[in-house]
Amino acid sequence: xxxxxxxxxxxxxxxxxxxxxxxxxxxxxxxxxxxxxxxxxxxxxxxxxxxxxxxxxxxxxxxxxxxxxxxxxxxxxxxxxxxxxxxxxxxxxxxxxxxxxxxxxxxxxxxxxxxxxxxxxxxxxxxxxxxxxxxxxxxxxxxxxxxxxxxxxxxxxxxxxxxxxxxxxxxxxxxxxxx
Length: 179
Hints:
The protein is α+β, with helices and mostly antiparallel strands. 26% of the residues lie in helices and 25% in strands. A four-stranded mixed β-sheet has the order 4-5-6-7, covered by helices on one side. The protein has a three-stranded antiparallel β-sheet with strand order 1-3-2.
């Protein structure tokens, strides 16, 4: 996976914090790359986000985790790639039909990101970096329609609107298949 491309966002890693940390250490020790993760407080089928960066991508001085959601469903990493200062955001919204729960997820991620940038250890001001946002949004709640093009199937409207607000705040280009 790491031999192609510049970075990979992964949702549902199924790893505990200890497992994810061990894997990150092994990747770096073997010279394969780096992994940053948000594992959550317990392992469930839907827990864990990670950002994997191959060793061919030089590690920037500013490369570090700036945000980890406690349940493991969001991760924010600062890095500089090809001279561009970035926030790479990996998120995994809740599955199911509860639109308000998904809406709350995106709103909470935005609030928590604002809070993270108030930490003196986080360089810069919220929204000043370009953002690459990788996400599994679970907007389509019917598994048979989960692979259909935009405009087909029921979309969780409240969640979509909250995700759009988050995208605007972090400066991410919205390019999500089902929108």
